[in-house]
Hints:
The protein is an alpha+beta fold. The chain is built from 6 helices and 6 strands. The strands form 3 sheets. The chain has a two-stranded antiparallel sheet with strand order 1-2. It has a two-stranded parallel sheet with strand order 3-4. The protein has a two-stranded antiparallel sheet with strand order 5-6. Strand 5 and strand 6 form a beta hairpin.
Amino acid sequence: MQDEKILGTLREKILQKLAEKNATGYVDWITISVSLLFSMRYATNFAEFEKGTLYNKIPMFDYTADGYLDGLEVVSTDYSELIEKYKDVSGTLFLADPPYLSTDVKTYTLVENWTMKNYLDVLTALSGLNYVYFTSDKSQIVELCQWIDENKNKVANLFKGAIISTVKSPTSGRNCYTDIMLYKLNTI
């Protein structure tokens, strides 16, 4: 049945087949994740995939998009190059779908560390242009931009001239994060 957990022998058969394909060829883990892992859970390798609970989310129909993109020029390149090339072309609409702030970026091709600076660079580049921008309420990028607009004459870079000290702090498993301490001594 659609959306039910896949357990027992069937789960083992699926994992066995994926392990075989993984050893002898290519497995598109993101596409497989969409069909067999819980919503918005993605694995990028077999070890991650086999840890997950499997669900039957396999579409019961074929996807078709015949003619859907006819007449469009689809370009894939670094956003800054794309904007520079097309910013003055009449009728251009930029579609911006950056990784959502505060989310895992491992499923994005060639994105190793998407930072707040990257988000702000995209927003700066889109200023004055036609765009559609995708985000989520978790990112709080809209609230950040509203705050910046409301406070642009009140706040400068508080950390300009501050000294930065960092320490790597391990967490559970293989993850770690960096603790950051900034300090500035204006008067003592």
